[in-house]
Amino acid sequence: MNGSRIAAVGHYQPAKVLTNEDLAGLVDTSDEWIRSRVGIRTRHIAGPDEPVDELASHAAAKALAAAGLAPADIDLVLVATSTAVDRSPNMAARVAARLGIPQAATMDLNVVCAGFTHALATADHAVRAGGASRALVIGADKMSEVTDWSDRSTCVLVGDGAGAAVVEAADEPAIGPVLWGSVPEMGNAVRIEGTPPRFAQEGQSVYRWATTQLPPIARLACERAGLEPADLAGVVLHQANLRIIEPLAQKIGAVNAVVARDVTESGNTSAASIPLAFSKLVERGALTTGDPVLLFGFGGNLSYAGQVVRCP
């Protein structure tokens, strides 16, 4: 085998929906204020009895079913998350236990909002190197648990959810070379820290960085895959907010692509946002098998990672 591919995807969101009108009853805000600044209408919020690994397991089970695979077919589980409460067992081990996956290597990756694309690259490398045959790659976050619900600058942004992909060996590479990196000296621009941990960010700094520094990096990810941005059928960026997604997609130059805008109904779900949005596009038929799609994560640590994949 010379490469790897995404065999199937799946996603999961909690049942509870929090609207902008609901938030207006908690903090000094309004539906118009939120929509005009971040483009979000609703978000899904997990309950106290819905931990990160449960969200992840639901999404992973759907991806497995879509691929027609059994839990025993998986030998690597990667969970991208920054909201795990416990240090051990990690979320990947708990997902494996929930799904009945025997003897898999289980690892968590904490690269915050860029976590899924980092984890996808890690799975691609492991499969191509022979370290795994099939991997479950999951992005899952429960941002509601690290949010100050009295801070209107952050509580209007967040949502909970999970997305997953099954990655397996392939004759021809269908996951392009990753382009990843970070700006460590600006890492404090997005934070989840303290006791209890709380999400905070310097919104203007993140906006300027994302809309000015990231477009050439995303275009280079396309170049590494042997494509021009105009060749893309889809663009799935980290669903930070609509005021970042739309100008960034435009500057990349993907003029023929469907651009994911799941942030409007899901909010910022951190590491879950890319697989969640991607899975929804696939589910509703907005993308077809073999379509080239740019996945590009960015955010916490001011890290970024992007690759072009072929739609399952």
Automatic annotation (TrEMBL):
EC number: 2.3.1.180
Protein name in the entry: Beta-ketoacyl-[acyl-carrier-protein] synthase III
Keyword Hydrolase: no
Subcellular location per the Swiss-Prot or TrEMBL entry: Cytoplasm
Cytoplasm among keywords: yes
Active-site feature positions: C113, H238, N268
Subunit relationships: Homodimer.
Chief subcellular location: cytoplasm
One function term, GO molecular function aspect: beta-ketoacyl-acyl-carrier-protein synthase III activity
Enzymatic reactions: malonyl-[ACP] + acetyl-CoA + H(+) = 3-oxobutanoyl-[ACP] + CO2 + CoA
Free-text comment about domains: The last Arg residue of the ACP-binding site is essential for the weak association between ACP/AcpP and FabH.
Region described as ACP-binding: 239-243
Family: Belongs to the thiolase-like superfamily. FabH family.
Pfam family, one: ACP_syn_III
UniProt gene name: fabH
Chain's role: Catalyzes the condensation reaction of fatty acid synthesis by the addition to an acyl acceptor of two carbons from malonyl-ACP. Catalyzes the first condensation reaction which initiates fatty acid synthesis and may therefore play a role in governing the total rate of fatty acid production. Possesses both acetoacetyl-ACP synthase and acetyl transacylase activities. Its substrate specificity determines the biosynthesis of branched-chain and/or straight-chain of fatty acids.
Organism per entry: Streptomyces tibetensis
Pathway where it operates: Lipid metabolism; fatty acid biosynthesis
Transmembrane segments: none
The Beta-ketoacyl-[acyl-carrier-protein] synthase III N-terminal domain, residue ranges: 107-180
Keyword tags: Acyltransferase, Cytoplasm, Fatty acid biosynthesis, Fatty acid metabolism, Lipid biosynthesis, Lipid metabolism, Multifunctional enzyme, Transferase
Residues covered by the Beta-ketoacyl-[acyl-carrier-protein] synthase III C-terminal domain: 222-310
